[in-house]
Amino acid sequence: MTLHPADESFANHLRSLLPAEVLRPVEPRYLSEPRGRWTGQAGVLALPRSTEEVARLIRAAGTKRVPVLPYGGGTGLVGGQVMPEGPAPLLISLERMNRIRGIYPQENVVVAEAGCILADVQSAAGDAGRLFPLSLASEGSCRIGGNLATNAGGVGVLRYGNARDLCLGLEAVLPNGEIWSGLTRLRKDNTGYDLRNLLIGSEGTLGIITAAALKLFPQPGSQGTALLTVRDPQAALDLLALARGQVGEGVSAFELIHRQSFDFLAETLPHLRQPLDPVPEWSVLVELGLSGGLDAVTALEALFEAAVEAELVIDGVVAQSEAQRGALWSLREHIPEANRRIGSISSHDVSLPLSELPAFIQRGQEAVSAMGPFRINCFGHLGDGNLHYNLFPPKGRDRSDYAVQATELKRLVHDLVHDFGGSVSAEHGIGRFKTGDLQRYGDPAKLAAMRAIKTALDPAGIMNPGAVLA
Ligand code: FAD
């Protein structure tokens, strides 16, 4: 079906339906994305304040056949939030829908509007003596609606699950402009198809999430963080098993870091001090969160000792203060920024069955080296089998020198991931960046079902056209 641009006459139509202050001039920040791959088009920008206003906007877009682009914090890494081609969209930013509608400490539930910044939801939970465990380096800017629309992961997935696992209910506006009030706080609700899980991870292609009921957890009484040098990725996996054997569910993060990450940090952000000398080839950032009077620092020291004895760990530091914990986490959280400053040729957010990780890393190293002296920065949420596997030009060269090889390198890495039974998008989604990969590696029956669902819910194709299903 032909779509029409969100132009001045459409803006005038919206002005007749909504308070004047809902429409705003399109600022450049709405048209860029963190990796600078695309620049979006300026159509009409709307900042609704209520679910009813979102519904009115969607109904108007449906009537006039105008594409709609939902917008959260703009931190998505696969270009779902920018529309570089086709008719210019109606961009709907949820940023003014940023109220915590209710917090229920006894139930361990918070109900937040989609425009709430993730860090604000974490703070609201903390003020109520609870923990909202979704945690990403972008948490100061990404918004709950975006987190759910991308099914975000981050460092807490190992223990608490991803955004999907943390959501009990949703309120959303569907492509026909109907409001779905599914904001249940129930933990058990087997009443038909699971619309909530359909919308989570749909990247704005099946509707706009306007609010969510989210799970909270007790705050751990004691938290501790260590950076431990491991022999190799297999030793890192063995260390994870050892840690779980010692403290069970108390392992709340387990992040693998290759030396390349520290080299990039030293080159681009030298004020961030790396505590181990010499810089290890492989290390793991381990976080424990313990309750019941157990002390996380003591438990980490015991783990360190046992791991050295088992010849899994060579060296390490256990943070002895909150400041030291913060400094260790700061290293991990700045790796994406250091990568951005160096400039990758090709970045991959992949997941693999845990036991296949060491062989994948080994085979990847061999295959990439055979194509040239590229620098590989391999780091990520090892406990979830999720690696960020990013390829950079040799030192002194620019990524633009390798534009031709970029596609080949991406194909090489993704083919390898696929051969190992992995996923080419672990936590960032498909967006516009990976639509080709979804076609190439996706199961045909699943793709056909996805198209059928899209057509049934959004027959005019107004919701984020070009994302997920090209
Ligand atoms: P946006 O970027 O605004 O939008 C993302 C997608 O969701 C788009 O398709 C958009 O149309 C859609 N969308 C947004 N809001 C809504 C809504 N209310 N209803 C329906 N659709 C909507 N991701 C991880 O998973 N794990 C990480 O560890 C991680 N670390 C990151 C670190 C950095 C430094 C950066 C820049 C990004 C990182 N990301 C990570 C990616 C990004 O932060 C997440 O994908 C995040 O969930 C996106 O949220 P957002 O609000 O910024 O969404």
TrEMBL record:
GO terms of biological process kind: respiratory electron transport chain
A Pfam family this chain is assigned to: FAD_binding_4
Keyword set includes ATP-binding: no
GO MF annotations in UniProt: catalytic activity; FAD binding
Taxonomy, superkingdom: Bacteria
Cofactor(s) for this UniProt protein: FAD
Ligase keyword on record: no
Keywords: FAD, Flavoprotein
Annotated SUPFAM superfamilies: FAD-binding/transporter-associated domain-like, FAD-linked oxidases, C-terminal domain
Similarity field: Belongs to the FAD-binding oxidoreductase/transferase type 4 family.
Protein's recorded name: FAD-binding oxidoreductase
Gene source species: Ruegeria pomeroyi
